[in-house]
């Protein structure tokens, strides 16, 4: 069973990949299932990161009907939630029939990590700690999600190098414990391979903590934004998870996890 559970198409602000091309490529690659997870990020004064849910849902329904005999396609989204945007996401969750929701931290106080906007003027210890604290604060109040996306993504954009997870061990474990208690999961984001990171995303250390704390809900996704990302390294990720002791991974239907053997 191969399922890519993190895929962006032209409905996301940072991708121009047509949805139908992506689906045809997924069929060519022999994927059994994909979940489309368009970006939604709210800012106070910038509306360019907003998906048009109605257009997205309309095309999804059309594609799902056209290709349902060839591949299973799920309706998902990647919510980039900040503490001050929780209300907007609660409204979206209630308004659309999502199968699966990735909760990601892309910004704090509307400042982006990927361009170094948030990190500027802070020490490595400060921005790493604040990144994880923001995730903990969001999931303390917001429960309308399925998995934590690319949990240690801050490492991808850290010009100071990669900070050892043990520096923030207690905080990261508190995030994992809360997610487990809430019946939520963790995503393995295989974009780590194309970013040339020396570890998985999240790291083997964090995945091992998740395992030891009793975490069982895992999804795998390529974070695909263009054709040559799709389905990448899903098999490698499965093998890695098995060596850590995990036995199963998940797909989702109407926000409920379905378990499959790795
Ligand atoms: Zn993301
Ligand atoms: Zn993404």
UniProtKB/TrEMBL annotation:
Every Polymerase/histidinol phosphatase N-terminal domain range: 3-83
MF GO annotations: histidinol-phosphatase activity
InterPro entries to which the protein is assigned, alphabetical: Histidinol_P_phosphatase_HisJ, PHP_dom, Pol/His_phosphatase_N, Pol/histidinol_Pase-like
A biological process from GO: L-histidine biosynthetic process
Key words, A-Z: Amino-acid biosynthesis, Histidine biosynthesis, Hydrolase
Gene Ontology CC annotations of this record: cytoplasm
Matching SMART domains: POLIIIAc
Catalytic activity reported: L-histidinol phosphate + H2O = L-histidinol + phosphate
Pathway named in the protein's UniProt entry: Amino-acid biosynthesis; L-histidine biosynthesis; L-histidine from 5-phospho-alpha-D-ribose 1-diphosphate: step 8/9
The protein's Enzyme Commission number: 3.1.3.15
Top-level division of the source organism's lineage: Bacteria
Pfam families membership: PHP
Family: Belongs to the PHP hydrolase family. HisK subfamily.
Listed PANTHER family: HISTIDINOL PHOSPHATASE-RELATED, HISTIDINOL-PHOSPHATASE
Protein name: Histidinol-phosphatase
Species for this entry: Acetonema longum DSM 6540
Organismal lineage: Bacteria, Bacillati, Bacillota, Negativicutes, Acetonemataceae
């Amino acid at each position: 069973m191969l399922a890519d559970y993190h895929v962006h198409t032209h409905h996301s602000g940072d991708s121009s990949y047509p949805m139908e091309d992506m689906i045809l490529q997924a069929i060519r690659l022999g994927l059994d299932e994909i979940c489309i997870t368009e970006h939604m990020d709210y800012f106070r004064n910038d509306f360019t990161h907003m998906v048009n849910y109605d257009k997205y849902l309309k095309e999804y329904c059309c594609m799902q009907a056209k290709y349902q005999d060839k591949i299973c396609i799920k309706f998902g989204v990647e919510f980039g939630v900040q503490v001050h945007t929780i209300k907007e996401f609660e409204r979206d969750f209630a308004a659309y029939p999502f199968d699966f929701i990735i909760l990601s931290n892309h910004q704090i106080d509307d400042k982006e990590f990927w361009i170094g906007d948030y990190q500027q003027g802070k020490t490595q210890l400060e921005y790493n700690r604040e990144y994880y604290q923001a995730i903990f604060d969001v999931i303390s109040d917001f429960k309308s999600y399925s998995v934590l996306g690319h949990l240690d993504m801050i490492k991808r954009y850290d010009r100071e190098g990669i900070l050892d997870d043990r520096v923030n061990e207690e905080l990261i474990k508190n995030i994992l414990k809360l997610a487990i208690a809430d019946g939520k999961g963790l995503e393995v984001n295989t974009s780590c391979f194309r970013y040339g990171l020396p570890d998985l995303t999240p790291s083997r250390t964090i995945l091992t903590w998740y395992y030891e704390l009793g975490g069982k809900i895992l999804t795998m996704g390529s974070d695909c934004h263009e054709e040559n990302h799709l389905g990448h390294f899903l098999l490698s990720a499965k093998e890695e998870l098995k060596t850590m002791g995990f036995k199963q991974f998940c797909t989702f239907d109407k926000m409920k996890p379905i378990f499959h053997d790795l």
